[in-house]
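Translate sequence into structure tokens.
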Amino acid sequence: MEEEDTSVNRPTKKRKKTKNRETKVEVKFDENQRTEYLTGFRKRKNQRKEKAKQDNERLLKEARARIKKKAKEEKKKKLEEIMESFDKISKENNDGLTQFETEKQVYEDDSTTVTVAAIELTT
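Result follows.
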């Protein structure tokens, strides 16, 4: 008879690779850091809210400053226009301010004196 092969076809055993322990990162558990992380959600949320509030206040302040500056420039421009028209009128009239001196009103109080001159400008 034929000789039977008593050896069974088994896969050869693979050798385990040795672990590279030098380049591995070691994770350490710190209970204090864990509790800080878990309890810090509210704190971080409040910090975000506060920062957003400060940013909004800053933007509002800048907007107010721009509006004030624009109003100031408009007033200055209007005053310059009035002064130019006044100069134009006074140049046309040779007598100058004598026309307006008759329209002055003086108000006196105990400690103050106020003089009001009415000026009509035509454009």
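Note: DSSP finds two helices and two strands in the chain.
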